[in-house]
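Researcher: I'm preparing a figure for a lab meeting and need a structural model of a single chain. I don't have an experimental structure, so a prediction will have to do for now. The sequence is pasted below. Please return the structure as tokens so I can convert it later.
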Amino acid sequence: MHARSLAVVAVVPAVVGALLLATLATAHPLDSSGFGSVSASLGFGSSSSPVSCPRSPLAPPMRFLESSGLDTRALELVRDPAVAAAKATLRDTLAQSGLAADDATAAEMPSYVDSLALAAASDVANLGRTSIAWDDQPDRRWGLDNPDVIYRSATIDENGSYAIRGIRHSSQNIYFQVLDAYPGDGTLGNTTGFFAGNSLRTAADGSFTLTLSAEPGQPGDNHIQFGAGSKRLVVRDTLADWATETPAELQLTQLSGPVVAVPEDPAAEVVRRMTRQGEFWADYAKQLLQVLPVNAVAAPAPTRGGLPGQVSAFAQFDLRSDEALVLTVDPADAPYFGMQLGNNWFTSMNYWDHQSSLNRAQAMTNPDGTVTFVVSQRDPNVCNWLDPAGHDRGLIFLRWQDLPAGVVPGPVATRVVSVDDLADVLAEVPKINQGSRRAQLEHRETSLHRRPAAWPR
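Model: Understood. Here is the structure written out token by token.
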């Protein structure tokens, strides 16, 4: 391990410290006291005929500002010999990290390094442009990206003033977060400014202006006051319904102050950011895997180092091909609730070819308001199947957003069962046939392709 990565390790326990208190004692098996029997917690009556999974009418494709120039420059940087050499070094480092828990994880490592390189190159290419880059693309994933979120970012100067003009549209919520670190700084950074869309004042047509500067705004203004060290703006549009919701249209303008400097050697800056980011997330993942319960979920708690106001819960799964993990979750009436699978490189699993994530709008809810998910290699013929895409081991991440202050969901009930016994365990859950599954996956793909990305084939 490089000497600089040893310093990175020191910041990780501060981020995952809350998980050190989350032991198996905080996780509840499905038949434990407080959850009743499996059938009672699922709450369904018997069903002999297949059902259809939740789906919505499809809205028009999403629109984003043209980014081909940025993408072209980023691809040029990735092809630079120095970046190519650093990618090879990082692949060697990660191959020795012990994180490749199964064949699927090992096979994903080269493309993960490619993602880190392209993400760093995109950030560097955007320096000095005063524009918001679209980060939500399958070829630049990192940091356990949420498939339900459109991520965008820009580099700013804490001594500058800016305006974001846009049209709100229909995402469940939009969050503007300012940080004092870049992804390649070897730390998650601290939030130095924040504004949530449910406080955003818009005109009748949905248009708005949000200002950002070191100066305070007036009460009720759409304004973010920069804290010390501010240098990165991250925008998240949460899509609770992929088929119908549309993220905001955004345009960033600098009003005054210094322009962010462009590095003299952009390729060297890509190498620095990519390498430090790869080492950071490897150390972060190793720390997490040491404390996370296996096939049980740590107690939900406010997210540290991520989105302010979010409650989250982590777990890791380790399942044989003949096993399934059944989880029953309380959405706690959160406006947004979602669950996803991730790999040990700390990225989302393939969510465009596999149903490796589901949110509240996509999942079938139990009559008592809870949601039951099944993680298994074999299709359990229920709507709420989370497909691990060939992984025997991996991460589980749950998010609740926009809960009232002080509200934390109850513990997640879990149970590992034999796949052969799954039909009995889920006896009262309505079943779907393969025609319904194909329709569910086709609707997922069509909804996802509203986003103008180069989706792998």
